[in-house]
UniProtKB/TrEMBL annotation:
UniProt record similarity statement: Belongs to the FlgM family.
Domain of life of the organism encoding this protein: Bacteria
Keywords: Bacterial flagellum biogenesis, Repressor, Transcription, Transcription regulation
Region (Disordered): 1-39
InterPro entries: Anti-sigma-28_factor_FlgM_sf (IPR035890), FlgM (IPR007412), FlgM_C (IPR031316)
Annotated signal sequence range: none
Any one Pfam family match given in the protein's UniProt record, by short name: FlgM
GO BP, one annotated term: negative regulation of DNA-templated transcription
Compositional bias ranges of the Low complexity kind: 9-36
Domain Anti-sigma-28 factor FlgM C-terminal: 40-93
Protein name (record): Negative regulator of flagellin synthesis
Length: 102
């Protein structure tokens, strides 16, 4: 007695394998028909909506503030630029705290 092994060896991807035709709607072999869900419906979370709004705001904002850059360059050239280490540290800590909030 011999048995043929169908799944032995290289197999074609499932998308390329021939399939049996689906039964026609309303035929005796078809089962009950459920509600059809649109395949491209998407529900965005509140975070996703907020990020999309933020992306739009950032896209419309200038990449840099030319006036502040000019003022900083002038202050550096004149020796009046004061880098306050405590102020910078405070701002970095606040930034990290804001990032960690849920």
């Amino acid at each position: 007695m011999s048995n043929k092994i169908e799944s032995y060896g290289p197999q074609a991807p499932a998308a390329l394998r021939p399939r049996a035709p689906a039964p026609a709607a309303g035929s005796a072999t078809s089962g009950p028909v459920g509600a059809v869900v649109p395949p491209d419906s998407v529900k965005l979370t509140d975070d996703a909506v907020m990020l999309a709004e933020l992306r739009e705001q950032l896209a419309s904002a200038p990449a840099m503030d030319g006036r502040r850059v000019a003022e900083t360059r002038l202050a550096l050239a004149e020796g009046r630029y004061d880098a306050d280490a405590q102020r910078i540290a405070d701002k970095l800590l606040r930034f990290e705290w804001e990032l960690s909030r849920p």
